Amino acid sequence: MAVEKPAASVGASARARALDANPLGASIKKLDPYVTASSQGWKLNAPAKVLAQVPSADLQKLKTQIDKMNGYVKDGKIPSPKAASGTSLAQGKSAMESSGKHGYVKMHWYGIEFGLDKYLIGKLSGGLGAVGGASGLAAAMGATGPAAPVVGAVAGLLVAEMYVCQHENGWSIMYAVGVPPYGTVVCNPFG
User: Fold this and answer.
1) How many CA within 13 A on the CB side of residue 87?
2) Please, what sign has the CA dihedral across residues 18, 21, 24, 26?
3) What does the alpha-carbon distance between residue 105 and residue 150 come to, in Å, rounded to a whole number?
4) What is the helix (H) or strand (E) element at residue 43, kind and residue range?
5) Residue 119 and residue 99: Cα distance in Å, rounded?
6) What's the distance, Cα to Cα, between the start and end of the chain in Å?
7) DSSP annotation string for 64-126
8) Which range, 44-48, 100-104, 163-167, 180-184, is most confident?
């Protein structure tokens, strides 16, 4: 059974909540157009005037995230991000996508994206135990490699925010932004 991909649109109220909950959102949005993907990983090529618009603490966190993700590429833990023909720029910047029966995990330069379908959200309404705990959630989402322990670490956060980030089509798309330990997940770092 093919996994139905989620729609890209999110309601205005979900966008507002995501921006309120995501202190790095504005900085990610400013820097993303200047991040390029190659066989070695990601590189930030922002002009000085753009860098000056990003708070120094945010810039340091996001540079650390790029270094961490590039380390995963160098160590062979995730494939390098490649801009494949026929894909959008955002898809070309994703290093890894693991799809399970009821969700997916994607690794980006700014963090990790999690997708849960409406079936999985329904099961999780009974708590993590309803899917076999954090490892059951990771398996349902198809989390592999370095993404699997991250799903385990944020499982409670994913359950807590799954309804806030739910799209009109039933999918919930959430992001752990920056470097671990993740203290929050957000709906959409691009607002």
Assistant:
1) 11
2) positive
3) 10
4) strand 41-44
5) 15
6) 32
7) HHHHHHHHHHHTTSSPPP---TTS-HHHHT--EEEE-SSEEEEEETTEEEEEE-HHHHHHHTT
8) 44-48
Half-sphere exposure of 128 (CA within 13 A, CB side): 17
Nearest CA-CA partner of 110 in 37, 51, 165: 37
| Rounded-to-integer distance, Cα 23 and Cα 160, Å | 18
Left if phi > 0, otherwise alpha if psi is -120 to 50, otherwise beta: which for 76? left
User: Do residues 177 and 13 lie in contact, with contact meaning Cβ atoms separated by under 8 Å?
Assistant: no
Contact 31, 178 (CB under 8 A): no
Asked whether 65 and 81 are in contact (CB, 8 A), the reply is: no
Q: Which two tokens stand for residue 77?
A: 């833990």
Largest Cα span, the chain: 50
Name residue 41's beta-bridge partners: 38
Both structure tokens of 26 = 């504005």
pTM: 0.73
State both tokens at 138.
């990771």
pLDDT in tens, 4-21: 444 333 344 444 454 455
Return the amino acid letter for 53.
Answer: Q
